[in-house]
Input
Amino acid sequence: MRFSITNKVSWIGKIDWELRRFHGDEYSTHRGSSYNSYLIEDEKTVLIDTVWAPFGREYVDNLKKTIDLNKIDYVIAQHAESDHSGALPFLMKEIPSVPIYCTAAGAKILKGHYHENWNFIEYKTGDTLDIGSSQLVFVEAKMLHWPDSSFTYMTGDNILFSNDAFGQHYASELMYNDLVDQAELYQEALKYYANILTPFSPLVTKKIQEVLSLNLPVNIIAPSHGIIWRDQPGQIINKYLEWADGYQENQITIIYDTMWNGTKRMAEAIAEGIKSAAPDIEIKLFNLAHSDKNDVITELFKSRAFLVGSSTINRGILSAAAGMLEMIAGLGFKNKKAAAFGSYGWSGESTAIIQERLKAAKIEVLEPGLKVIWNPDEDGKQKCFEFGREFAGRL
Output
């Protein structure tokens, strides 16, 4: 499929309507995704990124219908992750001598992935490539979100090919931000940021400020996943700056794992206590064993504060809660407050374990964890209610 963006630039990627899991099994893609590849036809012909390996042969076959492959002068690999570079082995068998422009880290990673010594030409921030009436300007974007990540800016058409930045896992043949459902678009953009870019937020701010300091006009932002930003493209840049700066909404999220619903009942009573003390705060509850982990992470990212609960099992905590705490630690949330709770039968270690893991993740713990033996009775529920009230009062 070919889709014209400007007189010189076309989208030649792949929409993956069936995709439901990504990064192995680490990221849920409820609305599918796309692998955005771009073809520039100026005096020189340039291919920017490819598609995921399962679609590699299809991609090259479709590209042959679009253009004589021997007319391709340059390939730009902005990122070596296989969802962007997976078709390169298929493509380079056809045009083995065509240079591949990438960062030094990109060349190293591509060699590690594919064990091929292609004609790599390494670039750094500020390097340019003249392609006729337009010029390509390269910008390294290290750790957004891999060491090799980079952007490419095209003069004339004023397009920023932003790779993983500003993208979403969102399948749509409408292609442009002004044509798709805005609620869906921003939900997927926020989820993408929360789950993938949160650990690199200081670098996001620094890199955006660096790019803005170049005073380059940007008419279009063309990411490697999801839709293309053509209507006020600066809106997603502003959102990234907001999300990177300790983002929070007026929300408290309560997450828990439970064996026989004792911890669930605690969560519900805590929520009632919070609501009684702060009726304007939105409260959301998630049973971690039954909830999509990436959707939960998105809600935690939005929250001012959150509470984590688990029953005690084998002097530890339940696996879904343990897994979520591991994700929280890895993402490095900033500007969040939290507390722990849980039910138990005889030993009751869960709340202390949760609390220590929250502290290790550098989350501010507002008060000592609450534990209730067995299934909370009315007195136990009241303790949970007061715990919620006190938690809300400390925000």
Summary: The domain at 252-390 is CATH 3.40.50.360 (Rossmann fold). The first helix runs from residue 56 to 66. The chain has a mean pLDDT of 96. DSSP finds twelve helices and 24 strands in the chain.
